[in-house]
Each structure stands twice: as C-alpha cells, then as structure tokens.
Amino acid sequence: MKVAKFGGSSVADAAQFKKVRSIVEASADRRIVVVSAAGKSSEESIKVTDLLMAVEKLRDAGEDYQPTFNHIERRFIGIRDALGLNVAIENDLQKIERLIPTCTYDYLVSRGEFLTAKLMADFLGFQFLDAARFLVYDGHTVNYGESINRLRDFLSANSRIVVPGFYGVDEAGEIHVMARGGGDVSGAIMANLVDADLYENWTDVSGIKMADPRIVDHSRRISELTYDELQELSYMGVSVFQEEAIKPVAERQIPIAILNTNHPEEDGTLVEGTVRRDPNQLVTGVAGKKDYVIISIQKYQLNKRFDVMAKVFSEIQAFNVPFEYVSSGTDSFSFLAKRSQLAGKLGAILAALKKCGLDRVKLEKDIALVAAVSHELGSRPANAGKILDLLNDSQIKVHLVIQEGSDIKVVFGVANEDYEKTIKKIYRDVNLKAKKLRMAI
Ligand SMILES: Nc1ncnc2c1ncn2[C@@H]1O[C@H](COP(=O)(O)OP(=O)(O)O)[C@@H](O)[C@H]1O
Ligand SMILES: N[C@@H](CC(=O)OP(=O)(O)O)C(=O)O
C-alpha cells in the first residue's frame, strides 16, 4: 500500500485537483491520500494557511477579519463548483465562521487542510477521515499506540481514504496543529501507522535538487538520498520536505519518493536507508539559510576555564534563545542564533557577557549558513578542506566552519550577501574539482 501526500501547490485549485485524481487513479495501491491546505497558484498568491493565520491576527487585534475569511470561502466554493461537486462545504464554512471569535489558533489554522480534504475525498470518491478522530498527541509527540488503535476502527481491507494533514488532537481532544510544512509529517505518520510500502510526497518539483532551483538554474536532481542526508538537507533549509517527517518513515524503513504533481512522468528522488553513489560525487546536496548572528567570546586558555564558561552559560541561559554552540579553538567559543530569535535581546545578552570577565566579545550579524551534505564527508572529513579552499579561491569570506568528526555535513558561515554565490560555487565547482582530482591521480 502507498500513502500519497499532496502538498499545498498540488491542491491549489480545480486544475491541480484533476492532476491529483489522475495520479491517484493510475495506481490502485494509492489508497491513503493526505492533503495540505490549498496553497499558492497562478491566480492565488497566498496559501490558505497564511490567510487563516491572518484571520487569527486580525481577530486578536480587534480588527475586521471578514474580508479575509470571505476570500477563503470563495476559494473553497470556487474549487467545489469548478469540479461540479455536491459536498455541502457551506455548512462547514458557516460553522468555522461562527467559531472564529472564540476558537483556538490551532483549530482555526487547521481548517484549510480540513476543507481541502473534504473536497478531495468527494472528488476522488474516497472516504473522508478527519485526523482529529485518530491522530493523537501526548504533548508534542505522537502517541502511536493509541493512534493505531483508533485508526483500526476506521480502516478495512479495501478502504480508500483522504486525511487532512498538518494536525491531530491532544489528550483532551483539542486540535493540535503541527509546525509549518507539517503536511509532510502527517503523511509520514500515516505511512508509519499503516506500515506502507512507499511514502509518496507529491510537490511542485521533480525531486530534491542538488541546490535550491530558485538559486541555481537547471539544478541537477538527486536521484537517491539516504534518510540522514535528507534530514540534514531539510534541517539546513531544503523546504521540499519537512525535517520532522523523516523519523516516522525511517523507523520502519519505508522508502520516500519525492515526485512532481505537474510532471508525474518525470523521475523524482528516492530516499532509503542506504544508496549507491558515484565515487566522483564529493557533495550530494547543498542548502542553506540566511539571517544568523554569531557571538564569539575570547579569553586566554578558555578551554581550561570552566569557571568562565559556566558563568557565560548561566548568563546566556536566562535569555531562552536556542543557540548552537561552536568551539572554535583554545581561546574562543562561538554562539550562533537566528536573528529573529534574538529580536530585542541582543543588547542585553552582550551586556551580560561583558560581566563574565572575557578578553573580548565579537558580534557578526547578517550571516548565512551554507551546508554541503554527503556521506563522503562522514567517511573522509578532510574533504571539507577542499571545499574551504574553493571558497577562499573565489574570495568568499568564511566566518565560521562547523564540522563534527563523523558528521555527514560541513557548514560554512558566510555573509548574507555571499549566500547565493556560495551555493552556486559549491554546486558548480566542488564535484567538478573532485572529478579532476581523481582523474589526475
Ligand atoms: N534543493 C531543492 N530541491 C528542490 N526544491 C527546493 C530545493 N530547495 C528549495 N526548494 C523549493 O521547495 C519547493 C517545494 O516545497 P513546498 O513549497 O513546501 O511544496 P508543497 O507545496 O508541495 O508542500 C520547490 O518549489 C522549490 O522552490
Ligand atoms: N498548510 C500547512 C502545512 C503544509 O505542509 O503545507 P505545504 O504542503 O503547502 O508545505 C503550511 O502551510 O504550513
């Protein structure tokens, strides 16, 4: 059995719904369909989830949310009518509208998936199964035992169902919404719950490219990836697949196929536990994210000064910022955080560090992190030096290098303005260089 998850772009309008139906009908094994909320299309520049979030913000600010909600209503009724469906979506829309003044954030933003799944179920002739009826969370983790028990009541040998992604329920039965991009996670959880043979993730690109196709034109497709390579790429910013969606399928060794709804005939990316690799390929993929801040502290023989480090950590802890820690030598240590997470706190953090008896505190803003990911880096960490040489040769200033011994990635901190250039450089030159080096041997 296959679980097929269709992302927001795949269900953005009636034309996309039709593509989904031909894909689903092409294989009798596609019995569980998971959908995100209608996303962006040529006509619609905002995802339904973002519209729902806007409604919630307007409501909380005491402003008029009605025009935004009317827009959402028109989108769903438009899809329903264009497909000639009979499903009485007005009743659901009226109920949601009635609840807006008092409902939770989670309930409201989950309604995009709920409504999209209702329409899709009707269009495919599948049963609609609300995730709220079986996908149970204990705090922030899925309760798989309870979820499987509940799901059993709804599934029979030949059920065909459509499930809304992005949410489940907590122990009290209240809607629990996932992090952004959570539709991928729902698909992965479904695949785990039914022990699927394959988890298909249908999106608007034919698989994962070696580099973000918005930065590198005609970026090459990665035909095969391991779960841990995908994990690192997703963590480092490849938005195609949500990082948290890997564990539920990797645990059961269920392969993931990342495929294109707009070009189902094209090959995508297959993700499994192990893959065969071209030995000329030094880097499997490159990804990154912008807008980081590095705070570096310096103190003579800091590596031996546990008293100083303890004071620094205790000061830093008070600010509740998710920092990454990078040991950068005997005398220095760096803290790395997203600029958005430091908002309003940076001045106070620097002031607190000044009280710790350090020789120097250095601040570097507008830093982008770019990661090269590959199993080759895990087995031969020295390869990272080759990439660093290449960046130096092209006058890209590297502010920071993060590489742990057996890690399958190396991360470079560069200026935000060098972000695209760094990605292009690694994409274009690293594998080429590796090839030339090997040929020269
Ligand atoms: N390395 C990459 N390979 C492929 N796509 C990428 C990569 N990095 C970023 N992307 C972007 O991810 C997008 C798909 O993710 P997303 O918009 O979340 O899809 P969906 O709406 O199907 O869930 C692509 O359109 C592409 O612009
Ligand atoms: N609709 C949710 C969940 C999701 O996964 O969406 P998409 O498949 O469009 O990335 C979001 O926008 O975050």
TrEMBL record:
Pfam families: AA_kinase, ACT_9. Its EC number is 2.7.2.4. It is an enzyme of class 2 (transferase). Residues 371-428 form the Aspartokinase ACT domain. Residues 2-260 form the Aspartate/glutamate/uridylate kinase domain. It catalyses: L-aspartate + ATP = 4-phospho-L-aspartate + ADP. The keyword Nucleotide-binding applies. Keywords: Amino-acid biosynthesis, ATP-binding, Diaminopimelate biosynthesis, Kinase, Nucleotide-binding, Transferase. Pathway: Amino-acid biosynthesis; L-methionine biosynthesis via de novo pathway; L-homoserine from L-aspartate: step 1/3; Amino-acid biosynthesis; L-lysine biosynthesis via DAP pathway; (S)-tetrahydrodipicolinate from L-aspartate: step 1/4; Amino-acid biosynthesis; L-threonine biosynthesis; L-threonine from L-aspartate: step 1/5. Transmembrane segments: none annotated. InterPro entries: AceGlu_kinase-like_sf, ACT-like_dom_sf, ACT_Aspartokinase, Asp/Glu/Uridylate_kinase, Asp_kin_monofn, Asp_kinase, Aspartate_kinase_CS. NCBIfam families: asp_kinases, PRK09034.1. Belongs to the aspartokinase family. Catalyzes the phosphorylation of the beta-carboxyl group of aspartic acid with ATP to yield 4-phospho-L-aspartate, which is involved in the branched biosynthetic pathway leading to the biosynthesis of amino acids threonine, isoleucine and methionine. This is Aspartokinase. It comes from Lentilactobacillus fungorum. The lineage of its organism: Bacteria, Bacillati, Bacillota, Bacilli, Lactobacillales.
